Amino acid sequence: MADEIRKKGNRMKKYKFFLYYLTVTALLFWSFGCDEDDPVETPPPTGLEILEVPLTLLANIDSIYTIRVRVADEGVDPDYVLCTVSGPSGSNPGTFNLYDDGSLNELEAHPYAQSPSGDIVPNNDTYTRDVNSRLLTNEIAGEYTFSFSVPGQSDPIYTKSETVLAADIEDCILTHITEINGLIGCFDPVDLTPLIEVTEPDSVIDVYGVLLLDGVSIDTLNFISEEVFPALDTPYWISTILPNSFPCAGTDDNYSLRYEVSTRFGMNCSATTADFSILNDDQTILNFRGLPDTLYRPTAVGDTDTVAVTLDLEDCNLEGIQTFNGVRFDVKRDTIDWYHEDKYRLNDEGVSGDSIAGDGTYSVGLTFNRSDTYLDNLYIFRYYSVDCAPPYEQTDYLYDTVRVIQPLAEVDGLIPASDELGFEVITAPARENHL
Q1: CATH topology of domain 284-426
Q2: For position 41, what pLDDT does the model report?
């Protein structure tokens, strides 16, 4: 009997040891597998998210504003989101519903909420309603609270609110603008300092200038707010016209500048100067650094030699402008007459052979491969610049000649195709804003 009990005890010890082994192994596996650096998936947020509510409303002018919220919960699919509006001094503009209907439904008439809803995409969990601010506020200025709720069986599932300021606002007024006498060649900087009046609590948020030629917009100019006039307690907006502010404005007497102002409450005002003239400076090519008199192609098959051509362009209207691509070259070789492709340009963008962007030095890289076709050829290059401003005047040609020889050619030479020149151009990346 005692032996049988000892055997059972030994079996129980082995069983407990086995369980202990499994437990420790599992804990070790879990501790090594859960690295603190391993990314932890964060579940997407759930609830009610306000996407678009204006911070300000016009109480005295019919203006349409879009109210938009999102229900971020896959388990909740309401027919609408309710918005309750409370106004100043206990005024109660009432409620309206936001819909996720893609503006496909004609809604019941409402004192200020619009029909259709203004929703863009149906069934994407975004609920929208356009509202008329003057009708909503009944022309009463003050703070309004928009309280949103996702309806449930008895109580709202989610709620959120936003406070909005409504005010009686009039259009801003430009009480002073700087007139421009003329922008001739390398003129001295011209400071533009408009003065603007707005209705409290409105404020100016953006000022910019539009350069007009015969009343047609051709360029823009940004203003910045730098300080406050103590006497007027109003922002001081300034912009400085430099010779390179309008690099591609051609010579003409019918220019004007329209000042455009926009405010926090969405008001706008503008004023236009009298006509003035612009006369761009002439371009001059300086410090040309071209190809050597003789250039030897590489001797190993597949090798390539790259040489750079640089020149300085003197034009105060283009100073610091990196995207001017009017510096060009043509080439002729043996029986091929003057030839040009769009890629035959020098750049000042700090790429494709150019060292420093915007320093006024324009460059191009040319590659010459090892060849058994082009053994001894005379190339003539001519470099020039074409102004980006009408009437698109061109500088005089600057000529450069190079003899290109292939040492250790394996054959006596083949007659190259008439449309092949025997070199490649390292082109600058294409840009949409090249001048």
Answers
A1: Immunoglobulin-like (2.60.40)
A2: 61
